[in-house]
Amino acid sequence: MHCFVYASQRKPDTYVWFSQRDRFDVLPEPLALMLGDLRLALEVELTEQRKLPQEDNVRVMENLDRQGWHLQTPPGDTMSVANQPNHHRRIDEERPQD
């Protein structure tokens, strides 16, 4: 899988992987605003055999297949919750209606 990795200009050591070059429109708007401008940092061919130093390569590929992007944050950063499939769900949607 061919990938394009962009560095956030606002959040140090934070990267967004895309399955297509300059495909910023697939990011949720709040995340895009939080990351600020993105700068192309790397273009890479990702395979299941290729090990990444800070990310699970299979998880990255799954996120790219499912949503077209993957967020890579520094270890321990809570922004990585954006990689969850329900990241855009409203909190009150789980509450039963009266």
What does this structure look like?
With 98 residues, this protein is α+β, with helices and mostly antiparallel strands. 18% of the residues lie in helices and 23% in strands. It has a single domain (2-79), classed as Roll (NE1680-like fold). It contains two helices and four strands. The protein has a four-stranded antiparallel β-sheet. The longest helix has 11 residues, at 57-67. It starts with a strand and ends in a 26-residue tail after the last strand.
In short:
The protein is α+β, with helices and mostly antiparallel strands. It has one domain: YcgL domain (NE1680-like fold). 18% of the residues lie in helices and 23% in strands.
Q: Give the tally of β-strands.
A: 4
Within the CATH hierarchy, at the fold level, what is the topology? NE1680-like fold
Quote the average pLDDT.
82
Shape, per Cα inertia axes:
globular
